[in-house]
Pentacotripeptide-repeat region of PRORP domain-containing protein (Corchorus olitorius), 426 residues
Amino acid sequence: MSHPTKRKMFSLLSRYTPPYSKNPLNMPKPFSTTTPPPQNISIVTTLTNLILTSTDPQSLTQALLSPSINWTPHLVNSILKHLWNHGPKALQFFHLLRNHPTYIHSPSSFDHAIDIAARLRNYNTISKLLHCMRTLRLHPSPKTFAIIAERYVAAGKPDKALKIFLSMHEHGCFQDLHSFNTILDILCKAKHVEKAWNFFKVLRGRFKADVISYNIIANGWCLIKRTNKALETLKEMVEKGVLPSVATYNAFIQVLCKKDDVENAILIFEEMLRKGYVPNSTTYNVLIRGLCHRKQMERAMDFMDRMKDDECGPNVQTYNIMIRYLCDAVEIEKSLDLFEKMSSGDCLPNLDTYNILISAMFVRKKSDDLLVAGKLLIEMVDRGFMPRRLTFIRVLDGLLLTGNQGFAKEILRLRTRYRRLQHFRL
């Protein structure tokens, strides 16, 4: 992209002053649901086992229709979740319970059954379930169609997913901007970005595409590494007068960093600050990764320090990025210093942190480094992380080869303890 074009893009972004909010607009979550109240585990387990072991539909029906069972949507949903890996049995249970004299399935239970049928690619059953919902005057919701669309896309049928979206109104469920964004998100996450883009161009006027719509498409282009198309999409967004969000700026910064254009990414970052946007951890992590990739570790550390000023202190991902790149640069002492700072602060290391550091301890082939690897291995087990078998073998062999037999015996004892712990957890 030429410098005049970049300057034009910056000026387009600077036209807009955002609402002063610390919360960026998020991507749609088509399958988010409220958490149901806890069920009596013994009832759920007993009924699930009954369904799984039954070979006679008639006797199973009689058992399910017993007046001693107080059927509720939450109980039905819990059983369907327990039967998730036994799709045919789950659908059998759902259909048999439709014979109950008083209990009627809830829309949420239909959604679970439809999801199971779609996962089995039993499209005939999906049609019957939708028809049954209409018969019971339980209109399918946008979530219902999002479930079906996502399963079609997962099965390699994106055109079917678009068709189900366009047919929503035939089932008494009218499309809106949120459902439009949801289908775009489903397509883009499955890397059908070209199809999503063409669909977007046709219907963006009808649904009045917003910042979330554009962010979804831009992130989709990034996902398939077509950064120029992502920049074009974001540029078009601001030209059409759609107010950018923090997520928009994050997308800009990510695209520029992927193009190895960190300096212009920093210009975008400074622009968002001038306009009153508050960067989040994603903003900083993308920039820090970009700077590290350019081997500008000191500048990356400066941005890490700035995170505290914006009330979004470094998170575990931030530390892992820095530690990984420091290890790649064979700056082992600096990576360990950062690890110590992490361990003594509010952000504790995770499994990735330990794996990164333990692997780095083998680079210099020093006896002291392998002692550190052993200590890290002990610490990660003490903190409840489960190392890979290869990690144990590698550390053990390294200690033996460098003459640390005493410590190697301790690692052997740890491995025995780890096996017992793993067996207990299973």
Q: What stands out?
A: Residues 350-425 form one domain. Confidence is low (pLDDT under 50) at residues 8-39.
